[in-house]
Design a protein that fits this description.
Layout: E1 2-8, E2 18-19, E3 25-29, H1 43-50, E4 54-59, H2 66-80, E5 87-88, E6 90-91, E7 101-102, H3 122-141, H4 143-157, H5 161-176, H6 184-195, H7 204-218, H8 231-252, H9 261-270
Antiparallel strand pairs: 1-4, 1-5, 2-3, 3-4, 6-7
Length: 275
């Protein structure tokens, strides 16, 4: 079954295509023959699709699970690249019209982050592919790591800043909170800053400040609204910290400690003192 997902905000240089390690996903130039014209899509939809140059293509046997796999790859771009990440708005399938769809909530982008919109080359795609392999392992290795990735996925797709902020903080909680209730702020702040060795913007006080905003919102100490105002900067800061945590867990291979409670407790013990 072949499903074509046109990529927005994306371009490549120096390659004619790229096969990811999973073998069922590849980057291919978007062909006119891949554009499915159904009543589901308006003329504006078709124009938008035809303006894109590249597509993420699923070409595997069983169709089950391909959406999660594709979404994880798109998250990999967001986590492991300092360039503007691609996103999808449509899925196109000539083999089965029911698999063609317009996404109601595509991945959003915080424009205050100012990531450059530049073409990817083969070396960068190789790095993305390596990160993709690690995130697939991370997704399978434990409930905590699976949930953390799911919360981050939802944060990246939230169209309100407050939803994205709370879900992103929940992703960090899934990774670094204690098993028993209580003291979440201290545990998460210490463990994150220890993992990242208090690099700029990631010291214990930085993480505590972000966590305090989350607590003030959820406990009703400040009024919340859809108007982001200056809070996009807070969201940008939290995304930076969160991305750095995922990169570091992959760089060290430390996510593998989550496979068992004993190994995870030992790993958390190494993070329980600020650097």
């Amino acid at each position: 079954m072949r499903v074509v997902m046109p990529l927005f905000d994306f371009n490549c240089t120096g390659i004619t295509g790229y096969q990811f390690g999973t073998r069922s996903l590849s980057l291919e130039p978007l062909a006119k023959s891949d554009v499915v014209k159904l009543s589901l899509f308006s003329e504006q939809d078709i124009r938008l699709i035809e303006q894109q140059h590249w597509a993420l293509v699923y070409n595997g046997g069983a169709i089950g699970g391909y959406k999660s796999l594709a979404n994880l790859l798109l998250m990999t771009f967001r986590i492991f690249s300092d360039q503007r990440p691609p996103f999808i708005k449509y899925r196109l399938c000539r083999d089965n019209d029911r698999l063609s769809t317009r996404l109601g909530s595509p991945m959003t982008y915080n424009y205050s982050a100012r990531k450059p919109k530049v073409a990817f080359d083969a070396a960068q795609l190789s790095q993305i592919d390596q990160g993709f392999g690690h995130l697939q392992q991370m997704d399978r290795i434990s409930t905590r790591t699976h949930n953390s990735l799911y919360f981050l996925y939802r944060a990246f797709h939230a169209d309100k800043w407050i939803d994205s902020f709370i879900l992103m903080m929940t992703s960090l909680e899934a990774l670094f909170s204690k098993d028993k209730p209580g003291g979440a702020t201290e545990a998460v702040s210490v463990r994150v800053s220890s993992l990242l060795k208090s690099r700029p913007q990631c010291a214990k006080a930085n993480v505590e400040g972000l966590y305090e905003l989350r607590s003030e919102m959820t406990h009703g100490r400040i009024m919340v609204s859809d108007d982001a105002g200056d809070n996009l900067k807070k969201l940008e800061h939290l995304e930076f910290v969160t991305v750095q945590c995922y990169r570091e867990l992959v760089r060290q291979g430390a996510y593998r400690h989550y496979a068992t409670k004993k190994a995870r407790d030992t790993f958390m013990g190494t993070l329980n003192k600020p650097p």
